[in-house]
Amino acid sequence: MTGYAARRPASYAEGRAAGLPAVVTVAYERWGGGEPLVLLHGVGDDRRVWGAVVPLLAGFDTIALDLPGFGDSPAPDPGVPWGLEAAVAWMGAVFDGLGVERPHVAGHSLGGLVALRLGQAGLARSVTALAPAGFWTGVERRYAYAVLAMSRQGAAARAALRAGRGPRLFSGDVPGVPVTVAWGTRDRLLPPWQAARVKAVIPGARLVPLPRCGHVPMADDPGLVARVLREAACGPPAATDDGT
What is the assigned CATH class of domain 11-234? Predict the structure, then answer.
């Protein structure tokens, strides 16, 4: 699913999470200045999936990461379990390594689920989840996994998919953190009706449909995605007197 922008040389950040035996190293690219905005990709992708969106995010200190084991980020030590709890701990440590405190976080698919968990852990000042994984039925999960299995997957992707088979990937609210959930109306991998399940768990979440977008809206309409990310971080524009 990668390939929407040319790869730039990566920088690297390290972090050691409490309770995990190894240091995690992630590749990243960083642009601009302002409030920090961290971008997380999904399974089968890397930081390049945000390539068309990043130039539209002027005014933010934008950081696109390769999750551990994806893209240019080395795989974590084999003895370290790859799961959501570990991913949240790793990201918190990486934020420290990057010198950012409670950034805005936007994630797609698996990255969207991680972003929601980061918000729940108090590590994000706002969360934007684009078609977040984990809000599926058993049948929907098996279909998504079958589609992903047909693409070329590395060890990290396989480990992430194994972790995704666990029950209750997300439960509980995200108190005190603005949450935006955006979904492509033409998403065939994770159908857009799953957004209602997110809303049931996170009642305060703002739901935003992405018209004519599939599972990777950053490729289908980068301008719309950039606008959603801006509104999630800064608040939607105020309505005028005529209601527009």
Answer: alpha beta
